[in-house]
Each structure stands twice: as C-alpha cells, then as structure tokens.
Specification:
- The chain has 242 residues and is α/β, with parallel strands linked by helices.
- It is built from 8 helices and 5 strands, in the order αβαβαβαβαβααα.
- It has one domain: Rossmann fold (3-Layer(aba) Sandwich).
- Strand 2, helix 3 and strand 3 form a beta-alpha-beta unit.
- The longest helix has 21 residues.
C-alpha cells in the first residue's frame, strides 16, 4: 500500500467525507453527532438555526479532542413551533427511536459517541435514548450547547451566535423584539397552544440587542463547556455528560 494513501487517513475530520477503510485504521473512532431541528426562528433566522449552532459547536469541540464529526441530525421534537410554516417535527417518540437505533449501529464500531444538542425540545428523547443505550452497555452520552445567556428562542443569544457563525444568513432588517416574559410564565399557555400562543412572530426574547461579538463570547462558552463535559466523561443517570 503506497504512502500517499496513508497521508490521506484523517486523524480527525468529518465522518461523512471519509471511507470505511479510513475509519477502520484511524486513531479516532469516537464520534460526535450534532442534533438540531428544522423549525421557525422568527422572521430573521433560518429554520436550521439549532442545527447550525450544534454543528459549529461540535466541529470546534472535535478539533480540540480528536473526535470524528458525524453528519447532523437535522430533525427533532419541535411540536411547539408547528403553527409556523417551515417547521418539521418528528416528535419525541420518533426521535428517541431514531437515537436508540443510531447508537446501537454506531457503537458496533465506534468506541464512544456523544450527541451534541442544539434544541431544548430534544431533551426528553435524548434522556430516554441515551439512558437505554447506556443500560445496554454502550458508551454513549449527550451534552447541551449551553450558555448563561438567557432568552428562550430566536432572541438575543441565538441571534448573536448566528451573527458569529453565519452572519450572511441573519436578516438584520427584520429584527423584532418578541415576548420577553420569563419562560416559566409562558409555559402554561405554550403547553396548550405552542409558541404561537405567546408570540405572533415566534420570537421569545429580544434579537435587536444581538451582536457578533456577543455571539463569539456565547459560542466560546458553549464550546468550552462541551469540551469539559466530553473530556471528563461523567454521564449522569440521564446520560448527560457532567
């Protein structure tokens, strides 16, 4: 076998861009899977915002820890956004089943796998799926794209991060403040009528205050937090890395 082939074997990289043979002889056989959604994010952000954030965070973490990055899972449990055009939700049951079968298949060859979650609505499915995978003896975990930045949806935090990772796709001439009440106050209405019951635009928070600099800070916080969780590898009873 010639040496040029060996030079093409990745130490880290995108799982979808390598061959089965390259994976089999790579030193990196642990994978990170971005998990997002396809759902409304107000009049100014793309439908794949959660997936973009999860993918960007995953790539940054994988580069620091020498893991492979799998193609993103771009559909999740987004029923609360179903009143808005463009939203495609597969629901908690289907998502949990998808993650379970994904994990069972991937751990036939991967040493470890971690789902990097960019959408809060996916958490119930993640807990169910990863807890089951771990009970079957599979080395799986999940971590959130977490930050101390506080608004709930398509507001200051998410808009800032998109201005950092994909500025050309933020429609800055359509920024409108949404319902800024605490999420705990909104949940009773949202449980009955979804996000549309509390926000005509689908925005929970204030995107008008977003900046790329703030997005860089939030993004770095997300990456550092995920790096710490994955490097420490201490899954809780719910499968989330602590």
């Amino acid at each position: 076998m010639n040496s040029s082939y060996h030079r093409r074997v990745p130490v880290l990289g995108e799982l979808g861009s390598v061959t089965s043979r390259q994976v089999s002889i790579s030193t990196s056989t642990s994978i990170m899977i971005p998990l997002g959604s396809t759902e409304q994010h107000g009049p100014h952000l793309p439908l794949d915002t959660d997936t973009r954030i999860a993918t960007s965070v995953t790539r940054a973490v994988a580069q620091r820890l020498d893991w492979l990055v799998a193609p993103a899972i771009a559909y999740g449990a987004s029923g609360e956004h179903q009143s808005f055009p463009g939203t495609i939700s597969i629901g908690t049951e289907a998502l949990a089943t998808l993650l379970i079968e994904y994990g069972r298949s991937a751990t036939c060859w991967a040493q470890r796998l971690v789902f990097v979650n960019g959408h809060g609505g996916n958490i119930a499915a993640l807990i169910r799926a990863v807890s089951l995978l771990r009970s079957e003896g599979r080395d799986a975990g999940w971590c959130p794209c977490s930050s101390a930045a506080g608004d709930a949806h398509a507001g200051h935090a998410e808009t800032s991060v998109l201005l950092h990772v994909a500025p050309a796709d933020v429609l800055t001439d359509r920024l409108l403040a949404g319902n800024q009440a605490p999420l705990a106050e909104l949940l009773p209405l949202m449980r009955r009528g979804g996000v549309a019951a509390v926000s005509e635009t689908g925005v929970l928070g204030d995107p008008t205050t977003a900046t790329a600099a703030e997005g860089r800070r939030i993004f770095t916080e997300m990456v550092d937090d995920c790096v710490h969780r994955v490097a420490r590898w201490a899954p809780g009873s719910d499968g989330m890395l602590r």
